[in-house]
Amino acid sequence: MTHLRVRDAAGFLGVSEDTVRRWIDKGSLSADVDAAGRKVLEGTEVARLARELAVTPELHGATSSSARNHFVGLVTDVVMDTVMAQVELQCGPFRVVSLMSSEAARELGLAPGKVATAVVKATQVVVEAP
User: Fold this and answer.
1) Which of 52, 67, 83, 82 is nearest to 117 (CA)?
2) Is there a contact between 77 and 88 (Cβ–Cβ < 8 Å)?
3) Which residue of 22, 24, 68, 123 has the fewest C-beta atoms within 10 A of its own C-beta?
4) What pLDDT, in 10s, does the model give residues 74-121?
């Protein structure tokens, strides 16, 4: 069973350590004490709460797609030459970078501050664990 320290749980949940401690005090999260005397939370409980708290903003007029991974965010940078464009989005805590034709970036009107969705459909996803 994986245990997470309060600091790490807060990072995964996108909240402050104080918020996690308040949730523990309120009984919304349960915590144990590890061998070193630190409060720790079960990884499965933090994962459950992370899923509950995850809210993906939806764009109006979005279309249906077979891709399951949609990351809505703000364009933070566009680097373009005559042929290719590198577009960077900040989707919550995640930075997503896409390479596309300059023509496509212009047609989409991609520029810093614009809301956009990164849609990822991969036949292979690599998962790493420590």
Assistant:
1) 67
2) yes
3) 123
4) 898 999 999 999 999 988 778 899 999 999 999 999 999 888 889 888
Rg, the chain, Cα only: 19
Measured distance CA(97)–CA(74) in Å, rounded: 12
Does residue 64 have a pLDDT over 80? no
How far is CA 40 from its chain centroid?
23
Please give the helix or strand (H or E) that residue 33 lies within, else none.
strand 32-33
Cβ-proximal residues to 66 (8 Å cutoff; 6+ apart), any chain: 121
Residue with tokens 């764009």: 59
Q: Which amino acid is at 89?
A: L
Q: Is 116 helix (H, G, I), strand (E, B) or coil?
A: strand
| Residue 120: both structure tokens together | 């990822």
Question: pLDDT per residue over 44-53, tens digit each?
Answer: 888 888 877 7
Q: Is 47 helix (H, G, I), strand (E, B) or coil?
A: helix
Separation CA 3–CA 42 (nearest Å): 5
* pTM of the entire predicted model: 0.59
